[in-house]
Structures are given as structure tokens and as C-alpha cells.
Amino acid sequence: MLIHFFEPDTGDFLRSVEMPTVRDRIGTVLTPAGGTLAAPPLTTVGFRPRWADGEWVILPDHRGEVWYAPEGRPVSIHKLGDPADDGLVSNPPPEMLARAKDAACTAIDVAAEAARLRVMTPGAGQAMEYARALDQAKGVLAADEPSPADFPLVAAADASASDLIEGARAIVVGAERTDAALAVIRTRRLAGKTAVRAATTLPEIHAAGAAVVFA
């Protein structure tokens, strides 16, 4: 015979087991404790049967999910039933989502800055020097007969006229490569933050933030 077992304390269905038929002296079929001959009803995903008051009932199964108390406290669900009956909500309060989005966007900005520093030298003074050197390099390439004296930042490494032009070209090429890398970082940063702001649940927010990678 097929015995359908349930959790003694809650009545939640456990499993069905084929067992030898056992009868008492008057022929009544005996079932072990925590079991019944009554077959549990078929259920769909998200529902489970429970033995209650001598019959099977079907309850929502949210076990393993995280719901939220009215004040925003996360609550892990460990029992059958509708968590809403306990005053819980499936989505966190708007203010919690807002804080999570702010945190995710901040993390993206921090990661983007770290990526920038891999292609740029930090420091405001250094950045100013590079910007002015680039301006002078463009001036060298635009001049008919550039003089090292007129472009000291380009001529800093070597004062010869021929090397001045080569140096200017190297500065411009380097700046173009840096701009290309910065453009990739900016594109990924902005797209990631847009995805975070569009998310409507905490898992979506976390997934959107984690998807932003600055190689």
C-alpha cells in the first residue's frame, strides 16, 4: 500500500512510500504515525499540500523567499502559507529600494574611477600637464616649422625638431587611446546606472550592479 507521510508538527507533505499492508485483528488497515492512505492532491509550482484536520489542503509555498516587514526588515520564509497573512510584503518599501539603488550606483562610480586610474595618471596637476602637452602637441603638428622653444612640454624629452614632431604624434596617439578607453568606461558606467534605476526589486538591482564590468 502507498502511505503518504506528512510532517507531524505542521502537517506539510513529505513523501509517498510503498509499504506492506498491515491490518489489525478485525482487518482494519493500519497506517504508521504521520502517514495516511489519502493521496495528496496534485499541485502546481508554488503550492504544496498540508494535512490538516483529517484532510489535505493546498497552501502557497514561498519557502526560501525573502519578504519584508512594513518597516523594511527582510524576513526569510520557512513555512507554507501566504506571508501576507503575517503582514509581510513581497517587495521592499520604496525607501529601501531607493537606498539600494543609490548604493549600487555609488559602487558603479567607484569601480569606474578605479578603471579610469588604470589608463590615466592620478593628480590634478598631472592632468593639467597632460592637457597642456596635448594642446602643444596639436600645435606642433599644425605648425609649418615648429620650434622646441615654442612647445616646451613636447620638447621636454628631446629638443631636436625632428623628435619634436615624433613626440607630438606620440602624445596625440596616446591621448586618442586614453579617450577611447574612457569612452568605454563611460558607456558601461552610464548604461549600468540606467539599468539599476530601472530595476524594481532588490535582486534586479543587485544583478544590474553586478553586470557592470570594467575590464
Provide tags for this entry.
single chain; 215 residues; alpha+beta; three-stranded antiparallel β-sheet; two-stranded antiparallel ribbon
What does this structure look like?
It is a single chain. By secondary structure, this protein is α+β, with helices and mostly antiparallel strands. 42% of the residues lie in helices and 16% in strands. It is built from four helices and nine strands; from the N terminus they run βββββββββαααα. The chain has a three-stranded antiparallel beta sheet, with no helix packed on it. It has a two-stranded antiparallel ribbon with strand order 3-4. Strand 1 and strand 2 form a beta hairpin. Helix 1 packs antiparallel against helix 3, helix 2 crosses helix 3 and helix 3 runs antiparallel to helix 4.
DSSP strand (E) fraction? Answer: 15-25%
Shape: rod-shaped
Across the major sheet, the strand order is 2-1-5
Mean of residue pLDDT?
91
Structural class: alpha+beta
Distance from first to last alpha carbon:
62 Å
In helices, the fraction of residues equals 40-55%
How many whole angstroms does the radius of gyration measure?
A: 35 Å
Order of helices and strands: EEEEEEEEEHHHH
